[in-house]
Amino acid sequence: MARILAVDDSVSLRRMLVHTLTQAGHQVTEAQDGVEAVGIAGTGAAVQLVITDVNMPNMDGLTLVKRLRGLPSYKHVPILVLTTEMDPAKKKEAKDAGATGWIVKPFVPEQLLNTIRKVLD
Amino acid sequence: MNEGSATPASKQSSTHEQLLTFVVNGEEYGVDILRVQEIRGWSTPMPIPNTPVYVKGVINIRGDIVPIADLRERLGLEHRDYGATTAVVVLRVLNGSRHRIMGIVVDAMSDVTNVPSTDIKPPPDFGGGNGPSLAKGIATLSDKMVTILDVDQIFSLPGGDPVAQEAAA
Amino acid sequence: MSDLGTLQLQLMGTFFEESFEGLDHLETGLLKLEEGFDAGTVNDIFRAAHSIKGAAGTFGFGAITEFAHDMETLLDAVRGGAMAPSAELTAMLLESVDILRRVLTAHRDGSDPAAHDVGPLRRRLQAAVKGGAGGPKAPAPPAVIHAPTAEKAGGWNIDFRPHRVLLESGNEPWRLVRELEQMGTLAITSDLTGLPPLADLVPACCYLSWRYRLEGAVTRAQIEDVFAWVIDDCDLVIAPLGEQPAVAAPTAANEAPAARAPVAQAARKDEPDSPLASLRVGIDKIDFLMNMVGELVITQSMLGELDDDGPIDERRLGRIRDGLSQLARNSRALQESVMRLRSMPISVVFNRFPRLVHDLSKQLGKQVELAVTGQGTELDKTILEKLGDPIVHLVRNSLDHGLEPPEERLAAGKSAGGTLFLAAFHRGGDIVIEVRDDGRGLDLDRILAKARERGLVTAEQALTESEITNLIFAPGFSTAAAVTDVSGRGVGMDVVRRNVKSLGGNISVHSTPGRGTTISLRLPLTLAIIDGQLIRVAERPYVVPLLSIVESVQIERTLVKRLAGQWDVYRLRDQLIPIVDLGLLLGVTEGQDAADASLLMVVEGDGQRLGLLVDHLDGQQQVVVKSLEANFGRVPGLAGATILGDGSVAFILDVQGLSKLAKHKSTGGHRSAAPASPAPVPGAGATA
Known about the structure:
Chain A has helices at 11-23, 34-42, 61-69, 88-97, 109-119, and strands at 3-7, 27-31, 49-53, 79-83, 101-104. Chain A is an alpha/beta fold.
């Protein structure tokens, strides 16, 4: 139903994400780090949602969010960050970077789908 | 006169030998059919440095590097240019305990024949102390004589060593 | 949640692979830290621990998650500067890596993970953090989310005043409304007072506010949850409707996915047990494979086109023949590219040694440095699998018996620390793996004595040095003290030799008393791929291994010199390089005057440099090394052959062999290609 960009350097988690979202009928493009994600975004690929991990090599998630927000077609696209922390400071950091919201890891597929339903039109 | 061949379904009975025959310089020669892997047309091989003149080089057979020898020259005859009928018989050769694939260039292919063992006689002396003879026997057919070659000797030098030089120390 | 269960099972293999890799990465980083503090490395390690924690959590391994969390907390303290890195810390973390490996392995193989008690180590980790100066606030363990007290009312009045910037984060008020609507009956009042005149309106700004009246059995927490993401970008007031007393209901709004039993336990027995049963394959190899398949498809459709009811004539026959030979090429290429999937760099085997050497040398009280070369050398997977244990044994031998403790080394006039060299390279058509140390060398007297003791040699037998050296391979010679290697099996040199022989290779030992020992494993190249430079000599193609090439230069006549009327050399800067007429050496030309030739390719093999006369340089490409020995035999100067794109055969040159060949050959006069070692120009520095 929606085109989603999923970014996570952990292969197993990424597969989990992709599988869950695909089963729910979404179209998922994956990237293994921020650099790849920016590359994909730069090609003009339009998505309805970006889900990204925070701790990644080459370019971390928050930097990715900032970069995406700098692209005209991504200024208002919902971006959710995957975080293991419930730490309010981390949440604020994410929001400051421009993220729409967050999903706490580890998540259950139901949870993930419910959360993204909130940001999909 | 049976070959030590590893192929299971043996077409050899104890009374007959099945030969693939071909022509070199007007004479008929044959080899045990079970030693034949395939027959190909002539294609230019890549010469191997510093090898006897009858070793023409190597060709690529489905990814394997296969050496080719000119049987004419191996028999001590003069080289003659290759033509439309020139064929390469690719053989399975036993070298010690190892199997190798090697090919020989012949003037033309002849036939596949079943020869009764009783019609096979030991070979004549092939002209002098050059080590083990290339011939294993002579088969008398109704219209011709066929010299049966010892496949394992074709690529050997006097002394029985394979052609390739071992690395000098 | 059976779908989650199946999914987890499917991905479990990937999870284990990834986690083991992560642990390796952690370990390498920790070893690096020991040599010197580096902020980047600490960050790396921290991230590795964090990733392991995250994945373990998602896949339901609570104990691992918690343990990894303790490691992460400690690492965070170090990376934040609150704790100083120290040898004890690194040692503790290395222990942690070990125990995590064991726990993971237990999970994967179906044995009892609880047999490995992580408790004590965890406590030590936690104590270390506390002991450290205060430290940054550790994030709470992720297992539990506290449910805020649920205040329920008949409904709520919500006053929602977004700040201008709310929209910038991609949030939309109407989505929040959508959520509220699902929780009960919603009445909305909009406040448009903030709207500027149209001309001043910035679409990306939020100017509106709303008041919501939500009726239903809803808790405050649920409403707060709806606004959780935007709470900092708005003013929010939630007040209960009417005067219903707050009822403290223990309903938690969000269930925390805590301590989910790992679904994996069930089917693990069905997993393949060999750690190398699956393959990580580089994408480039897959791409190559895809290209081969693509070409196959093209050939097939080309042949398909020829399959109509037209007449079979010369032309059609010719095209069919072409198609068939192309088909043969495609099949061959496909076969090769699939086989290439199986080849992996030897680093896969060499990777375990930094840690092994580090631990063992500490244990033995010796200072040992490990120098590894040729990590990229590729070998077939099955050979690699079988090489692991033998090489471990050889390394342990070196550390145990070869290398001396610092005092002994110093007394002998050597440096206190010894070096262990691990090398892998191609030579003369084989792959050579060398384990070399600069220790005390083999004690031939002791070996002879021991052999006599064990009845392998009679008292009267006189043996040459090399025969004595080879005694170490005799069955029954190995010291009874069972060498328990990584896999816990006792191994002896005879077993090592047997293993190597079973791979079609051989093993040799070379030792100098007081200077060191070198053990060489020589394995035939079954499928090897090298980077090669295509050249042409007399219109024939050859391949020169890139590793052997030093440089290629255009020949300047004036720099060609004849030495004593015998052979030619080329003056390249401060060296005199012996010139080898490749065409002549390989028997393809009558020889040429070096001064007339165009290109000189300077190659190096085994310390010797040569200049080869080459007609053309064609491209560089990866070539599959095909054995000449399989069907023919060893040819001096050739390392093998390869099949080029057009199906023709090109020989791969063996520089070392060429050098020997040139020495032996002499065709008289100045055309002789018979070099000695490169002669340095007097006054210039010595060159290798």
